[in-house]
Amino acid sequence: MGLTAEAPRDSAPAETPADRLSRLLSDDMDRVEALIDERMQSPVGMIPDVADHLVGAGGKRLRPMIACAAARLLGYRGDGHLKLAAAVEFIHTATLLHDDVVDQSGLRRGKESANTIWGNSASVLVGDFLFARSFNLMVEAGSIEALNVLADAASVIAEGEVKQLAAIGDVELSAEAYLDIIASKTAELFAAAAESPSVLAGTPHKRRQAMRQYGQSLGLAFQLVDDALDYAGATLAMGKSVGDDFREGKITMPVAVAYARGDAEERAFWARTLTDLEQTDGDFERALEIVARHNGVEKTLDAARHHADKAAGSLEVFEESPLRTAMMDLPDFVVSRVY
């Protein structure tokens, strides 16, 4: 009888779809990383210090990775997509710097936010610098149409931020209206990251739209999972304080669901805590109870799964390959972050 080898007790964790994508795109991502590091430098010392505080804080570089994956899946052979990928990361970082000022956030990616350390003015101005750098990179990519895709995205993202600001404390915000906000604020950059390399590759309209749909739906799933985590997750897993949305009066999907299904007493609670921002000890725990009573987290995750499935399905128009498989598996992995 043969012997069966035991699995090593300290075996490495299974490779995730994000890890697989990173491995398949390692050459591109190494070059994007070098480009990001090079272009955030400045003789004004505070600029690279503030930028690197966020850029160097980790993360999967999901948006630039999507840009690189799209370029390779579409058969693009140049290197213009690397500049688009770096531009996407700079736009993302700039919006985070500005968001933390608007939200008065003290924590970002598990450590003190830049505005807490350097102040609001420095965060806003360095965010502006990164926006400017992103447009330099877009121009260097050599496609006016690709530049237009990302420039439009920057405008839509800003509009989404303003729409969210206007909706703070609006407890009657519907789930549909909230989805419209995050489609602009979060999903638009995912969509542009996926679509802009299609321009460089000269992709036919149907495939270009499929790639845009992939990014849009993935971005929606990503944000909805973040919403769920704020009412079900842990600070360590999120890199931000649990309950930040509640404390800032933000209406997200779990609250929109709970408010729509709640009774008069519960609606009065939401009005006091989120509209009037009159919050006392124990209010967040009660908010968690109300959201749980009305399955707010579960309904939010159902919506996230719907968009994750839509993202994966959009890639069926492309030929099978290890890259396509990793891209199709990524949306489900994004949803699984909550468990």
Characterization of this structure:
The protein has 339 residues and is mostly helical. The chain is 72% helix and 1% strand. It has 17 helices and two strands. It has helices at 17-24, 26-39, 46-55, 62-73, 80-103, 114-118, 120-140, 144-167, 175-200, 205-230, 235-238, 244-247, 253-261, 264-275, 283-293, 296-314, 322-335; strands at residues 107-108, 111-112. It has a two-stranded antiparallel sheet. It is globular, with a radius of gyration of 21 Å.
Helical segment count: 17
The SS-based structural class is mainly alpha
Strand content: under 5%
Number of strands: 2
Q: Quaternary arrangement of the chains shown?
A: single chain
Arithmetic mean pLDDT: 91
Indicate the radius of gyration in whole angstroms.
21 Å
Helix coverage percent: over 70%
- Residue stretches low in confidence (pLDDT < 50, at least 5 long) are 1-9, 235-239
Main sheet record: 2 strands, antiparallel
| Elements, N to C (H/E) | HHHHHEEHHHHHHHHHHHH
Distance between the termini: 41 Å
Which outline best applies?
globular
The strand order across the widest sheet is 1-2
Keywords:
single chain; 339 residues; mainly alpha; two-stranded antiparallel sheet; 17 helices; 1% strand; disordered N terminus
